[in-house]
Amino acid sequence: MRTMKAVIPAAGLGTRFLPATKAMPKEMLPVVDKPAIQYVVEEAVAAGIQDILVIIGRNKNAISDHFDSVPELEVRLQEKGDHGRLERVMKSSDLADIHFVRQGEPKGLGHAVLRARTHVGDSSFAVLLGDDLIDERDPLLTEMIATHERTGAAVIALMEVDPGQIHLYGAAAAVPTETEGVVRVDGLVEKPSPQDAPSNLAVIGRYVLPPAVFDILERTEPGKGGEIQLTDALQDLAADPAGPGVVGVVFGGRRYDTGDRADYIKAIVQLATDRDDLGEELRPWLKRFAADL
Fold first, then answer.
1. In this structure, are 54 and 165 located in the same domain?
2. How buried is residue 9: exposed, middle or buried, by Cβ count under 10 Å (0-12/13-18/19+)?
3. Are residues 173 and 32 in the same domain?
4. Same domain, yes or no, for 40 and 94?
5. Three-state secondary-structure class, residue 179
6. 172-213: per-residue pLDDT in tens?
7. pLDDT band at 35 (very low <50, low <70, confident <90, very high)
8. Of 37, 166, 205, 276, which is least surrounded by CB within 10 A?
9. Do residues 82 and 51 both lie within one domain?
10. How many domains would you assign to the chain?
11. In this structure, what is the dihedral angle of CA atoms 75, 77, 82, 85, given to the nearest 10 degrees?
């Protein structure tokens, strides 16, 4: 596997979580005992990526602070002999080589990805969105990188959803390939109505992209919501008969959606009940709680 960099867009305003995100980035909201963005960084590292660029906006300094060392805290934990917490604190500082660049104005996901051009250079790269947490036991990104290495195509993560929910996602028009779980993507529709959706294959927040996407994003006009949409650039890649095309990896593993308040709470419950240090206490309590509803 060639060396690959990862880009994590984290410049959104997080309006769905106000007032919690008035002063705290939504990416720093805790999921059990780690901020959501740390799960995403750990996923990239587990896939062999050590160079990570985080796209931030104003009032997002807490993200860079989290991945920096805190010597006074580390010394205090060392003096107390609290080696477990010390190890967890130091882990976030030693995960990877993490860089930050500002997006400036929130002009959409496509614009955020374009801000990574100077750092990424003329190489393929991964994009990971923080709203989708992928369980570490289901290595989706590793499979996507391998698929890109094999085909040269842009690779997007797809997941089957209830047709009535497809309007919440980008939907893919897809054709099976000879490789099980991998489809050729002929078109993408951003948040279609159920009757207009080409399939119930929803685009979730993982991409492995060739550097050619930057040139397309440079000339992409603002689309839905007045923003530069990454979906529009992928549509151009899919429609170009001379280009590398777009393929999708259909993911059937564990995904935790932290994009809205109810799903965020569900993600915390799911992850906490699976943990060795919390599950034994939480599972029987949840059964009693549910029985009383």
1. yes
2. buried
3. yes
4. yes
5. coil
6. 999 999 999 999 999 888 888 888 899 999 999 999 999 999
7. very high
8. 276
9. yes
10. 2
11. -110
**Intra-chain end-to-end CA distance of the chain, in Å:** 51
Q: Dihedral of the CA atoms 24, 28, 17, 15 (nearest 10)?
A: 70
Q: How far apart are CA 132 and CA 284, in angstroms?
A: 27
- Write out the two tokens for 258: 């932290």
Do residues 11 and 80 share a domain?
A: yes
Residues sharing a CB contact under 8 Å with residue 55, sequence separation 6 or more, in sequence order:
7, 8, 9, 10, 11, 100, 101, 102, 103, 112, 113, 115, 116
Give me the half-sphere count of Cα atoms (radius 13 Å) on the Cβ side of residue 138: 13
Which pLDDT tens digit goes with each residue over 250-273?
A: 999 999 988 889 999 999 999 999
Gap between the Cα atoms of 75 and 276, Å rounded:
28
Structure-token pair, residue 52: 């990570």
Tell me the torsion sign for CA atoms 2, 155, 249, 269.
positive
Place of tokens 């130091």: 90
For residue 231, the domain's CATH number is: 3.90.550.10
Q: How many CB atoms are closer than 10 A to CB 264? A: 20
Euclidean distance between CA atoms 209 and 145, whole angstroms: 9
- Show the domain range for 280: 260-293
pLDDT-based confidence at 2, cuts 50/70/90? low
Q: What is the mean pLDDT of the chain?
A: 90
| d(C-alpha 100, C-alpha 66), whole Å | 12
Q: Is 289 found in the same domain as 188? A: no
CA separation for the pair 170, 192 (Å, rounded): 7
Please tell me whether residues 67 and 43 are part of one structural domain.
yes
Q: Give yes or no: residues 285 and 215 share one domain.
A: no
Amino acid identity at 34: K
